Amino acid sequence: MLNVNNSNICRKLSYCLRLIQLSISDYVELLLKSLFITGTDTDVGKTYVTAGLAVSLRKMNVDVGIMKPFAAGTAQKTGFKSEDVEILARAAHVNDPEMLLNPQFFPIAASPYTALKNLKIKPNVKLVLNRFKKLSKLHSMLLIEGMGGIMTPILKNYFVTDLIKDMKIETIIVTRTKVGTVNHTIMTCKMCEKYKIPVKGIIINNFDADGYRVKELKRDLEDLTTFPVLGSIPFIDDMSDASLYRVFKKNLDFKFLQS
User: Fold this and answer.
1) 17 — phi, psi (to 5°)?
2) Which residue among 92, 110, 196, 197 has its CA within the 20 to 30 Å range from the CA of 238?
3) Residue positions annotated with a catalytic role
4) CB–CB of 156/122 below 8 Å?
5) To which H or E segment does residue 16 belong?
6) Residues ≥6 apart with Cβ < 8 Å to 30
7) Would you kindly state where each structural domain of the chain is located, as residue ranges?
C-alpha cells in the first residue's frame, strides 16, 4: 500500500507525463498572445509577413484570427473591400464577417486622419476596440495588421501607438533592407519605448535588390536597439500556403511565441 508521500510522487509523475505528451503546437497554443504587426513605414510588407505568420500558425494547429482595424484605398468590386483583408482572411482560413475583420474602410489612399479631413469620415476607435474584443473571444490568438507606420495618425492626438496600447498587446516591427532603414527602424523602436509598448522583435523583409546585407543589418539593429531580430524573410512570387509555410518555417524561429 502506498503511503502519502508515494501517492504524491505518483500524481506528480502522472502530471509530468501528460505534459510530455503535449504536441509542440499544443504547447505553443498554451502560451499564445495576440500580436500587433506594425512597420517602419508603409509598403514594408506588413501584409506579407502577417499572412505568412497566419499560415504558419494555422499549420501548427493554432486557431489564429486576423484583423486590420483600419484599411484604405480603392475598394474591390467583389469580396472584401480591402485586398489586404482578403489576403489575411485567406491565409488564416477564417470566415469571420468583414465588420469584425475590418471595422473601417476609407475610400482614399491615406491615413485615417487624412480621411477625416478630406472625406469627413471620422475614425471610430471605440468601434475598433469593441470588434477587437469580440474577435479575441472567437480565436486562440489574433494577428492585427496596422496601417502605415507606428506613428500613422488616426485622430489628431491618437496614433497607431495609442491603438496598440489600448489593445494591450505586444507588437512585431516589420522593416526592410533598403538604405535608410536603420534610421526608420530606430525611430520606430524609440516610439515603442516612449509609449511603453512591449516589442517581440523585428522581422526583416528582404525584398530590396540594392539594400543592406541581412547579416550586417541584423547585427546593427540588435546593437542599436534593445530588440532581437526574429528572422529575415526573402521575396517570393508564390503566395500559396505551402510556399509561405516553407519560407516562414525556414527563416523564422517560432520560439519567440513562447516568451
Assistant:
1) -65, -40
2) 110
3) 68
4) no
5) helix 4-20
6) 22
7) 1-26, 31-258
Q: Residue holding cell 469627413?
A: 120
Cβ neighbors of 226 (< 8 A, separation 6 or more) are 189, 193
* 3-state SS class at 103: coil
β-strands 141-145, 64-67: how paired? parallel
Retrieve residue 12's grid coordinates: 506528480
Is residue 173 within 8 Å of 148, Cβ to Cβ? no
Q: Would you call 19 exposed, middle or buried from its count of C-beta atoms within 10 A (0-12, 13-18, 19+)? A: exposed
Averaged pLDDT in 10-residue chunks for the chain of 259 residues: 52 50 44 87 92 95 96 94 96 96 96 96 97 96 96 97 96 95 97 96 91 94 95 89 93 81
144: left (phi over 0), alpha (psi -120 to 50) or beta: beta
pTM greater than 0.90: no
Return the H-helix or E-strand segment holding 142: strand 141-145
How far apart (Å, rounded) are the C-alpha atoms in residues 117 and 105? 15
The three-class DSSP label of residue 31 is coil
Q: Give me Rg for the CA atoms of the chain.
A: 20
Q: What is the pLDDT of residue 17?
A: 47
Give me the count of residues in the chain: 259
254 contacts 246 by C-beta, under 8 angstroms: no
Q: Are 34 and 141 in contact (CB under 8 A)?
A: yes
The CATH fold assigned to 31-258 is Rossmann fold (3.40.50)
Return the ∠ at Cα 128 (arms to 174 and 26), rounded to 5°. 60
Using the structure block, give the residue that is written with the C-alpha cell 501548427: 60
SS (H, E, C) 154-203: EECCEEHHHHHHHHCCEEEEEEECCCCHHHHHHHHHHHHHHCCCCEEEEE
